[in-house]
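Quick start: read one record
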Amino acid sequence: MKTIKKNHNFRAEPRDRRRTKSIVYHHSFSDDVSSETIHGWHLSRGWLGIGYAVIIRFNGNIEEGRGINKVGAHAGSTANPISIGVCMTGDFTKHKPTREQIESAVWFNRYCFELYGELLLEAHRDHMNTTCPGHLFPMNTIIEKTAKEEKIVSNNLTWEQEQSIKMIKELEEMGELKNPAHHIDKIKKGEPLGDYVYLTLVTRLRRRMG
């Protein structure tokens, strides 16, 4: 399963998120609308653009919003800088999410766990005075299914991959590297890194090998 890429035009470039502690769930409080529609709603509020990282549609499609590595606008000033905002389309004061939406949410949670480590799974109402995502939203079911689900990315990493991931995290802590999740994802998939990151990792890896 992959996120459907969307080329949203933001008022300014959203900031990269430095820490990630949780995934916060919302509902759109509407019909099954696209991420483009929600982007328009949020622009009309004077925001940069869509505040959620991703949108999960009735059919289970995951559409890109602001991006999973960006600071969102969805759960208040305390939660936004350290959380990933997920919006499921629908009004869960009137109906439950579809089976496809729940399956996609579980997949997305596990995918994020592989990138950031295990995260808290929360609802919008845990952070603000709201009923979102509605009393019919099955938060406990999603938490339980996520805990039981097999990991998305194989743990059969080479020593070099494991060390590279550790060094990516170290570089982030030192303030030398932005968007660590993007680079970690590439390492796990065996995809090439950018020249700067690659050369930095090779240099540090050689030092560790003595």
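The first helix runs from residue 35 to 44.
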